[in-house]
Write a structure and sequence with these properties.
This protein is mainly alpha-helical and about 140 residues long. The protein has 5 helices and 2 strands. It is about 75% helix and about 5% strand. The longest helix has 25 residues.
């Protein structure tokens, strides 16, 4: 739980002090949308298919809820806020590596346990998620 709180504190500080390129309306659209899809993927991959466990129990506790609800949403806000369209491939690759690093620390700390899942499976999913997020922002949120 300490690691999750540390990630959240860093993301909240980044959101508070970063130069604001997104409007409040865009943030209000992005945060619950990303949180929703994070929960859908967690329910399918983590709970129904049981390819990984988070926390000490199979039940969803407060740390799971906090991690799945806020970390992807706040990462999406920071990602979109600093996104540059001329270097999208490299920028998306950097955020993919950062996301994988966060997952790696979760597994090494013992908070996340794989049961048929692998960090290698997460890498293309993170990359694709950031591409879809960019598309979603450009075509839906921005309009």
């Amino acid at each position: 739980m300490v690691y999750i709180c540390a990630i959240l504190v860093v993301l909240i500080i980044a959101i508070i002090f970063m130069p604001k390129r997104l409007t409040l309306k865009e943030n209000i659209i992005i945060v619950p949308t990303v949180g929703y899809f994070a929960w859908i993927s967690h329910i399918i991959v983590g709970l129904i298919l049981d390819l990984y466990d988070m926390g000490t129990t199979k039940k969803i506790d407060m740390s799971d809820w906090t991690l799945v609800t806020f970390v992807p949403s706040f990462m999406a806000v920071v990602f979109l806020n600093f996104k540059k369209t001329n270097k999208l491939f490299v920028y998306t690759l950097v955020w993919t590596v950062l996301s994988a690093l966060a997952e790696f620390v979760l597994t090494k700390s013992g908070y996340m346990k794989y049961h048929g899942w692998s960090l290698w499976y997460s890498l293309p999913i993170y990359y694709l998620s950031f591409i879809i997020l960019t598309w979603y922002y450009k075509l839906i949120v921005k309009k």
